[in-house]
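Why does residue order matter? Because the sequence determines the fold. Keep that principle in mind as you read this record.
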Amino acid sequence: MSISTHSGTSEGAPLVAQPLGAGAPAEAAGSRIRVRLFTKYVALFVAVVAVALLSNGIFEVIFYYREHKAALIRIQHEQAEAAAAKISQFIKEIESQLGWTTQLPWSANSLENRRFDALRLLRQVPAITELAQVDSSGKERLRVSRLAMDSIDSGLDLSKEPKFTEAVANKVYYGPIYFRRESEPYMTLSLAGTRKAAGVSIAEVNLKLIWDVVSQIRVGERGHAYVVGPQGRLIAHPDISLVLRNTDMSKLPQVQAAMASGGAQVSDSLQGSPNIQGQEVLTASAPIQPLGWIMFVELPVQEAYASLYTALQRLAVVLLAASMFAVLAGIFLARRMVGPIQALRAGAERIGGGDFAQRILIKTGDELEGLADQFNDMGARLQESYADLEKKVERRTAELSESLEQQTATAEVLKVISRSAFDLDTVLDTLIVSAARLCGAERGVIFQRDGDVYRLAANHGFSKEFAEFAKANPIVVDRTTTTGRVVLEGKTVHIEDILCDPDYTSDFKQFGEYRTVLGVPLLREGAPIGSFSLTRSVAQPFSDRQIELVQTFADQAVIAIENARLLDELQTRTSELSQSLDELRTAQDRLVQTEKLASLGQLTAGIAHEIKNPLNFVNNFSSLSTELIDELNELLGSMKIDGKTREELDELTHMLKGNLEKVVQHGKRADSIVKNMLLHSREGSGEHRSADINAIVEESLNLAYHGARAEKSGFNITLKRDFDPAAGTIDVYPQEITRVFLNLISNGFYAASKRMETAGSEFEPTLSAATKNLGSSVEIRIRDNGTGIPPEVREKIFNPFFTTKPAGQGTGLGLSMSHDIVVKQHGGRIEVATEPGSYTEFIITLPRNGAARTRAGGSN
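Structure:
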């Protein structure tokens, strides 16, 4: 085999590489293939043996690993469940032993027997360190303890303790784990008798004895089991010192995962995690019902996978031998393949790098030699066409670069326009900068129309003094400036040299050394709205393509200006429409509410009038019947009737008279309700007018106070006033709003009096009234230190006919009428803040022109 690579060989005298041991020319070697590539590399398949062995070994390890791991999962999970069952059975046995202490009911002479039974239970069940027996009322009758003095009839009240209440409700109570003297774990176990009078037995169980159960559980050679409580504290462990130290296991990842899943196995796989000693272990868990504990079974990872490691060692030896064989076969094949392939790769790299004179000569007599000949033919054809192609590519590249630069700038401008629709200055600055850069201009400006003049909108390249001068001296329409000339002619203006133009006498020449100026008008519907100008410091005209590009940028500037104008108009119109819509909705809501209130008021008035007549008859005839019963008693008194009959008659007449008195009482209350319904349904009386709100509140306080004094001579209360002088006058219905204040103040008097009846003479009833100016509205606060309003009542206080006062003292319409007067008639709001047993405060907010606005909206 002969391999050679030559570059720069002449076309007429190519170098030829001969095969090993042969002298035939290159043409003869390339014309036929003596040996097929398949035959030469058949030895490669010998390596398949190693590959097959490797694949088989890997699959065997994978399947063996899965089977071994599945067995570990099953075994450890079964061990965890079995251990959990043992712990649960341990507690159940204690519960069963405790159960026979609750069989007998309590009696005077059963206490000694119970004490004897309790002592016997402590001897039989070493885990119970203390036993307390509580009767059905929750009183401790007996306590027997290994650690303290016994107690009989201590009378300790445990009726509110969970260990009593939960045991009575559920028959059994498992208390939380606690550590006595911060070492030994304990648990409270309460058991209620099957009969109600049997009471509850409460046992304090020392969980240290669970160690006997846990230490007997064998997990492999070095594995063990342990129990963790609901808070992650260690309850039982073969190493009893860990339990006595109150070890916190909640930081271990396996404990956290088990606690999060309620103790159940969180997945079907075992993951290695460090245990409390830092050793890598595989852990399985199971819940201990119904205690809420978790049983953990852990096995060291090294012990769990010991058999797997042995199998891996055997496989490694086999794989090592197969790998050595594969390496030897690869070395042999590489020596036969690398030479021709490297020659082909080097030649391809030279051709790909542009060296088309490169020639590859390989004398192997197979497909590689044919491939080398094809590379050589391709290099010759490429060498012929490269010269012409290189010229065309250079010319086309220049054109594409220029077009790409312009398209990129246009895309960037469009992107700025789309992103900065609300920022016109940013868009115009981007346009002038991009146009100047693409057209080879040093400076550029954009002027925008403002009435009859044009003001500077964007500046690129000109000095700060130029910008200040342009802002102070807007351009007028004439031929002395580029912008004025563009506006006059309405088309593009190109001044190749301003020094040669006698009409160009602009004062702006002093701020910039420019000679060539290009101005393009900004047109909207044919009318100029500004100008787009570029300048050059030397007299060098702009090309037609550059002028066309500037016109494109000018069109985009017009679009941006128009978008900004339309956006401003849209925002203004949207704001106007939103305000109009809010006003229409407010008027519509008030009109609908007015119609509803009018219909409801008419219906209520009609019903009240219909009820009033028969109610009057009931009241009148009830009073008349009471007088007739008195006359009947007088007639019966003059008649001779035996004693028994007279007693029955007296009893009947007395009962009849009492019933009639109740009818009269309830009839008067119904009459009061009807009157309030008529008052509630009628429209607001009087006319609205401006009134001093402080005077109205002061007058209401005086009227309510003197009315309460007249009704109850011993009534007394402290009145506090805090009136804001700036509250001033507001537009109200004085009669109606006074009714609201009288109602709220009277309710405050009533609440304060009720609290005084229970609080005693040390309590001082107080009612305060305050006003506050809020600008367009006024706030009135009426606060009492009475009984307050419970939350369930507070939600209903504004409902019609709802009252908490005794029968005959309230109709339940006062607060309902107050709400309607404030909210519906005056357009205000009424709120209540209260704390039961402390205070109640009503907060009324009235707009200054609420009554006039409500009248205009159709509410009245």
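Residues 544-638 form the longest helix (95 residues).
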